[in-house]
TrEMBL record:
<keyword id="KW-0732">Signal</keyword>
<dbReference type="InterPro" id="IPR043504">
    <property type="entry name" value="Peptidase_S1_PA_chymotrypsin"/>
</dbReference>
<dbReference type="GO" id="GO:0004252">
    <property type="term" value="F:serine-type endopeptidase activity"/>
</dbReference>
<dbReference type="InterPro" id="IPR009003">
    <property type="entry name" value="Peptidase_S1_PA"/>
</dbReference>
<keyword id="KW-0645">Protease</keyword>
<dbReference type="GO" id="GO:0006508">
    <property type="term" value="P:proteolysis"/>
</dbReference>
<keyword id="KW-1015">Disulfide bond</keyword>
<comment type="similarity">
    <text>Belongs to the peptidase S1 family.</text>
</comment>
<keyword id="KW-0378">Hydrolase</keyword>
<feature type="signal peptide">
    <location>
        <begin position="1"/>
        <end position="24"/>
    </location>
</feature>
<protein>
    <submittedName>
        <fullName>Streptogrisin C</fullName>
        <ecNumber>3.4.21.-</ecNumber>
    </submittedName>
</protein>
<dbReference type="InterPro" id="IPR001316">
    <property type="entry name" value="Pept_S1A_streptogrisin"/>
</dbReference>
<keyword id="KW-0720">Serine protease</keyword>
Length: 218
């Protein structure tokens, strides 16, 4: 009888699995998540601004700080693979294809200390209110002061930027107006962060259009 019970126990374990052996649930990843390239320099990190999809695969749109070439593999959390860069490097941002969907659950909200759900990408006009979400200051708001701005650097020129009077923040995440995505922070700017300054972002709608993507909302 004991042998029969033991045999039945083994069969049940094989068919249904033992308690405690279920795979871990995917971890949320989206705006505010930090990506890194373990093969790059120590500073090869970037912060996700928004999540997007092409109807099949999911993507992350992030600032350009974690890679210098397409196909660069990026990780997050405890050195867990996320996916690879598929484009965007010349525009001051990167588009990352999420390949490890067993580990990550792409979400449509931004984590900047509090959760900020994204519902769309209605563009704010010049003079309209816009806010910068960052890990350092939470939310900082101002107005859009110009569009289609071109900035030149020794490495090249970036066009199509939107200018604001918000002072740049460390560990910036994304620009939003309410629950509407506006753009990906672009390095540079001026101002003491207790007074109005100048900062720039790359409009998210241009990125979505260029890659045939739509925002993941939530």
């Amino acid at each position: 009888m004991r042998r029969l019970i033991a045999t039945l126990t083994v069969l049940v374990a094989c068919l249904f699995g033992l308690p405690g052996t279920a795979a871990a649930a995917p971890v949320p990843i989206g705006g505010g998540s930090v990506l890194f390239n373990p093969l790059g320099p120590a500073a090869a990190r970037c912060t996700v601004a928004f999540a997007a999809t092409d109807g099949g695969r999911e993507y992350l749109i992030a600032g350009n700080g974690c890679g210098t070439a397409t196909s660069t593999m990026l990780y997050s959390g405890d050195n867990v693979l996320v996916g690879s860069i598929v484009g965007g490097l010349d525009g001051g941002y990167v588009v990352v294809a999420v390949r490890n969907t067993d580990a990550w659950d792409v979400v449509g909200w931004i984590d900047a200390g509090s959760r900020y759900p994204i519902a769309g990408a209605k563009e704010t006009p010049v003079g309209g209110r816009v806010c910068l979400l960052s890990h350092s200051a939470g939310i900082t708001c101002g107005t859009v002061t110009a569009k289609n701005v071109t900035i030149s650097f020794p490495e090249g020129t970036v066009s199509g930027l939107t200018q604001t009077n918000i002072c740049p923040q460390q560990r910036s995440i994304a620009y939003v107006t309410g629950n509407q995505a506006q753009g990906v922070p672009f390095g540079g700017g001026s101002g003491i962060c207790t007074t109005p300054g100048t900062s720039y972002f790359y409009p998210v709608n241009r990125i979505l259009s260029a890659y045939g993507l739509t925002l993941v909302t939530g």
